Amino acid sequence: MSTQTAPASSLHEDGSPDRLAIDTIRTLAMDAVLKAHSGHIGTPMGMAPVGYTLWSQFLRTDPDKPDWPNRDRFVLSVGHASMLLYALIHLSGIREIDRDGKQTGNPAVSLDDIKNFRQLSSKTPGHPEYRHTTGVETTTGPLGQGCGNSVGMAIAERWLAARYNRDGFPIFDHDVYCLAGDGCMMEGVASEAASLAGHLRLSNLCWIYDSNSVSIEGGTDLAFDEDVGKRFEAYHWNVIHVDDANDTGAFAKAVEAFKATTDRPTMIVVRSIIGYGSSIAGTAKAHGEAMTPDDVRGTKERYGWPADAQFRIPEGVPERLNGAIAGRGRPLREEWEQMLARYKEAEPELGKELDALFADRLPEGWDADVPSFDADPKGVASRDAGGKVMNAIGPKLPWLVGGSADLAPSTKTLINDGGSFQAASYGGRNLHFGVREHGMGAVANGMALSHLRSYTATFMVFSDYMRPPIRLAAIMELGVTFVFTHDSIGVGEDGPTHQPIEQLAALRAIPGLNTIRPGDANEVAWAWKSALRTGDKPTALILSRQALPTLDRGKYANAEGVMRGAYVLASAEDPEVILIGTGSEVSLVVDAHEKLTAEGVRSRVVSMPSWYLFELQDDAYKDSVLTPGVEARLAVEMGGEIGWDRYVGSKGRTITMSTFGASAPLAKLQEKFGFTVDNAVKVAKDMLGKGA
After folding, report:
1. Catalytic site residue 437?
2. pTM, whole model, 2 decimals?
């Protein structure tokens, strides 16, 4: 551990251009929060010297092309400090890129946007949002998530460098910076990600920890008094201390030490005071406590600022920051583009890969080898089918990279011959996340933000541990594939702690998440195709441990119907009852349909693997599957009932779970909870008044 110590007055009110720029950041934050009557002001003020120094002296980017693939990344894990980032984006002159990837010529964040901080439709929402504001690398707000994202970005850089860099062609060599706070250090997701980063020796990763000892309830000593630096040393990080956030020289030396470190990630612990330089400095107001108009006036006077000036940007400040960043970044970006052109001549096949990767486009023929599965009454577990499908895609989609939370043998998600991603082998495609489900999800999002098609895997019941990053993947429209196996009471003897009940409903409730529960091996193949064909939405693949019969697709409808969310597998003319199944229950309702048909009951069987995709279809298609006039509908699913009323209606029935499961062999559980062909037939006939 090394320590940089500086005099408390090292950043004095000297009127220097750097001090003027730093105070501009501070006053913009004060004015925006005061005008909005909402927001957080302490960290933007306290960390303004750090943010300005990092951006002006070190951050490698080009404001005119802020999507340059080899730019450094800056992640604001303390998303409540968004005004720090918005001020830096505005003053550095970053230009806007629209959702189609085209430059508009407009500033990414204008002064009017800052004046509309936290207002409807502005580019300056309360917490930074990816795809919404150019220059924002990831959506942050829930503390610690940005930390996990930054680890994923660092992993992606290392993987991309290992695959694509050649002698004389350092296509990927960027760094990742993450500004975190006390709250991030308390959240488990940051600890999980930090532990993994240390194990992987990610020396391209630098966390800047704003240690200000203030939280919403008051001082952090109410709940948090550990030595964070020592904890990170135990994680195998290089830890550097800067005793005063205003000592820009000491902070610059710390960043230089990070850049010289080649065997581990770096944490720079920066001591700051919330609201430094204001008339309340030293009183350490609680994190969420607002400054009053009198506080703002007094602070501006202390800065030598016109007390009544609002959103003042002194002449020369934007030019100074933009000049520093562009002066460094533009030549580097231009040299990189020239190098990339030479690279494509020397390595044409890899060049084609990079073109597709940068465009988030799948390579031609990526799904050409996806297998189809012959009819088999014994069948295979959908997790096993998933592994076969994934490995058929893997060789054609080399940037499909991911792993499991210590469960690859069970989830069947190991990429054959892909190698392990480790400190000594950054080209490996199989990540070993360890038992860190929450961190795994956040890391996978960071990988996706760097153009990789990332995936994760664990048991379905542990989706609860991953819900925050899954939700954020949906908000950011990231094409991450979340594989969940052991999807029901079919887990059997492991019992209720491992048998998911309410998790399906919880995942289906996330807007923009395509939750697919395929019913046999051929539906699994189409589920993977669905997951990868669109890079702007995450997918949750829900797979079984137990074997599922592979349906005879000569007799029943083609599994391509998965792409429409639900489809008719088989149907009598003018059906009087509709049987709906998902996953392992599809074969059950197929058998019930056959028995009902033999007994003269006209039935239709519908496979509904994805509610999300079905809801995207037009009304005519929906009505062709779930005929409006047929009110006798039965949904069968080994999960909770919530939500099924949408499809079965007020007169329909479900065979679902209303309790937790039990520890027993699967056959005993199916009998106990009613998941049998005979029970499905009985319930269907009861609805029609044809029961015994």
Report:
1. yes
2. 0.95
